[in-house]
Amino acid sequence: MAYRVIQWGTGFVGKMALRATIEHPDLELVGLIVHGQEKDGRDAGELIALPPVGVIATDDVSAAENMPADVVSYFANADLRPADAVQDMARSRSIPISSYPAALHERRETMVASAMVL
Length: 118
Hints:
Elements: E1 3-8, H1 12-23, E2 27-33, H2 44-47, E3 71-74, H3 82-90, E4 95-98, H4 101-106, H5 108-117
Parallel strand pairs: 1-2, 1-3, 3-4
Helix pairs in contact: 3-5
């Protein structure tokens, strides 16, 4: 059984993570959250120069709450907006994985409490 992944962010590191997710046999990309109108509505594969994979990018953050996933792979820019990043990760029902580990460590109680409410 593949782990269902929502990828959040397609910047420099996010694009590498997206490619790794798409190409990994034990991972299934089920959603893609992007920032920027030029990426919204495009296929995830096309955003990283791969053939279409059937997952359409969205800038609707609330859509992540309704996507069936096991993991949220969070690679949005957290350095400039750490409080927002923690809030983003906390609102998901899935396990967050991030390139910004300080946010996971600093605010783990908030995320655990939020996940328990969901």
